[in-house]
Amino acid sequence: MIATTVPDVATAAGTAASAWAATPHHHRARALDGIAAALEDDVTGIVEVAAAETSLGRDRITSELARTTFQLRLFADLVREGAHLRTVVSRADPQAPVAPRPDLRRTLVPIGPVAVFAAGNFPLAFSVAGTDTASALAAGCPVVVKVNPGHPRTSDRVARLVTVALRDAGAPDGVFAIVHGFAAGAELVSHPAISAATFTGSVRGGRALFDLAAARPVPIPFFGELGSLNSLTVTAAAARDRGAEIAADLAASVLLGGGQFCTKPGLVLLPRTPEGARVETELARLVAAAPAVILLDDHVHDGFAASCRALEADDRVRLLAAGGVAAGAATPALYAVEGAPLPDVALEECFGPAVVVASYADDAELLTLAGGLPGALTATVHSQAEDSDLLTRLVATLAPRVGRLVFDQYPTGVAVDPAMQHGGPYPSSTDPRFGSVGTAAIDRFLRPIAYQNAPPSILPRELQN
Amino acid sequence: MIATTVPDVATAAGTAASAWAATPHHHRARALDGIAAALEDDVTGIVEVAAAETSLGRDRITSELARTTFQLRLFADLVREGAHLRTVVSRADPQAPVAPRPDLRRTLVPIGPVAVFAAGNFPLAFSVAGTDTASALAAGCPVVVKVNPGHPRTSDRVARLVTVALRDAGAPDGVFAIVHGFAAGAELVSHPAISAATFTGSVRGGRALFDLAAARPVPIPFFGELGSLNSLTVTAAAARDRGAEIAADLAASVLLGGGQFCTKPGLVLLPRTPEGARVETELARLVAAAPAVILLDDHVHDGFAASCRALEADDRVRLLAAGGVAAGAATPALYAVEGAPLPDVALEECFGPAVVVASYADDAELLTLAGGLPGALTATVHSQAEDSDLLTRLVATLAPRVGRLVFDQYPTGVAVDPAMQHGGPYPSSTDPRFGSVGTAAIDRFLRPIAYQNAPPSILPRELQN
């Protein structure tokens, strides 16, 4: 393991901040491209290590590495282009309404060193060189990654590649580092040199770090992506016309990657009609046929088991189907509950291969159920053309609760795109105004600065005439 | 006093949220225009009440009302135009890199009901119908204003006009309300229906409310504008070439409005040269000649007195000049301190007609002093062309600490403009990524939402083809 201490790396990040902020944008872009190239050059080694210490398999690791290098280059291109700075230039105007206006020019500057808490479920794309690191470096912020304990050797290997690539690109010392260990996390988020933090993980762990960030003498923004229920509603017409197809695709979405995606559908709202019952039956058949799955690590395994126990302990929740059983592996599960209001346990994320089906009697009960949903990354609706009135009311109820609305598709699979929003109302995110996927992720690490009546020599390049 | 309870108005705001969010943008714009017109129609009455219960005088009140109506119309125009939604439309692309891309469309939606803590020093422009209220309503958020105790009757009068104008424009019931009283503030920021809060006031009061907002079961963004030191540096060359002019304009900036602006220069860095000493002497002469001033209210008066006592209690701080004395009024004051590091008391905002002059021996000591400054809304530098190397280094040191850099002008007078940034690192703001003046103020109250594969009938107008 790469051995570093939080005070050392945080202080070094603080020292590197001004030099990295002052590094021309195209140099920063070249450094990100260099990291991408270094990861690609080591694809065999990375896949070997990551496959050995996670349960994800070589194909998934390989495609995740491709996503990771794509993201690094996406942010390199973004920084080269410069539109993310949203510059505004207002020339002096002695006749401006209300009061004469001085020459005012506004751009965005890096917020300062960022602490990145790596995710466990994406050992590359949301880990040491993942989207948080890429977007923070692109913004001009040094990065200290708190490594996820689920893949320490992958983290060390990637960290070495990142460090060398940054050095080769002429980046200042201290601009990037990693730390290991649970205690390092709390120490990092509390360190005065750190200006922002990102986190992907559990509600409990994320909230504890959020509380530390808010309680600092100088509070800092904390971008936590915690738990998300990701409801999926099937209308009676959709169950009637596409029930079998929906059941098959939904089961695939729930079971994809062992159910270990933050956008896994966790609650399915089905009509209490014969066609709705057939969707449920088909889902039960598919879940029962699913093999046991080795989860990411013991921590995730124990969390999944605890969630299942909590569901089974509730009088109103029935276990409808259970999949394969194997030592040390998780058994896929389908639970059912009827009518509004749902028990609290059915409104919490169950991270792993399980899903709860809740049935509704009519549109009114569906809207009541939708109105009781917690904040989430996504909500999905499967409907038919004849549902247009219901759909309008349903969307009005769901939209205030989510960051992304999905229609007749599935929420897993999060496109890396400027139009993506991966972040939603609490507890899915600690700040729903930002997201962690796609180019908008850079917005988290920039703050505005205005130059008033500045001599041209002082102005950043993007604000010059 | 308009008598309302927090649970009543917060719940009503929560109920109004979806209807106001769904109100077409041009209707929202018309409502803002209607508020502006209603305030203008009552200019005589508003000025009379505000002049009677504040010490600001009719001219200032009248010009502040013009600023207030200008702001309301600025946000109306912004909402009509729609660029603040920063929409992105990405059509489906089966050949997209990494993975096929679904149709994705991103816009911004209102964050939900906003609690506005009105400022004491701007009874109109940052109060009941001020920029926080205007930008939140423009964003589509209901508003509950916690009235500032310094101008309750003005607040009630403006609130009645706002309420009627919104009703006349067809806005839903509950979209706007005010509450009075200290206890109502804490209750409001903790109420589950409230989704964000803004605050302008003291570090102590603002931090207490920030802590409440962060400690909620569902934490909410809290935009506090707390205390700002606003350093102003004069180089040796500027003191030599423009010393008398700088002293006169600086004294005017410090004493403007009784020093009760959040951008008042609070610390002046002067060279320890004969020309620097002359600037200090001239400043002392002007401060000594300034009359005593009635401050906004007893709370501000007591705070100013406490700040002055703290400065006078420090061994290293000397009182250089004191202005007029009058019963119940504040005496303008000029303090001096030498060299780095400055005592803590010289690094805190003193809200009112006082300023501290700190002298530096050379460029190195100036840069050391600048490097020890706290986060602030602004920093100002007066220099000459020959200072270009020093200026570059000084700006590199100051920029990470402020939201606005002012050159050869003065920080008081905050232009209402898209290029303005009125917000800086803590403690000047609780979140330096946002500002409270100009069109960018609306960004605080919007969050992104993405529509994936949505039927056209469901898409918000701005996302349709």
TrEMBL record, chains A, B:
- Entry-linked InterPro entries: Ald_DH/histidinol_DH, Ald_DH_C, Ald_DH_N, Aldehyde_DH_dom, Aldehyde_DH_Superfamily, ALDH_KGSADH
Give the Aldehyde dehydrogenase domain ranges.
5-433
Alphabetical UniProt keywords:
Oxidoreductase
One GO term in the molecular function aspect is:
oxidoreductase activity, acting on the aldehyde or oxo group of donors, NAD or NADP as acceptor
Q: Does the keyword Oxidoreductase apply?
A: yes
Write down what this protein is called.
Answer: NADP-dependent aldehyde dehydrogenase
- Natural source organism: Amycolatopsis thermoflava
Identify the taxonomic lineage of the organism of origin.
Answer: Bacteria, Bacillati, Actinomycetota, Actinomycetes, Pseudonocardiales
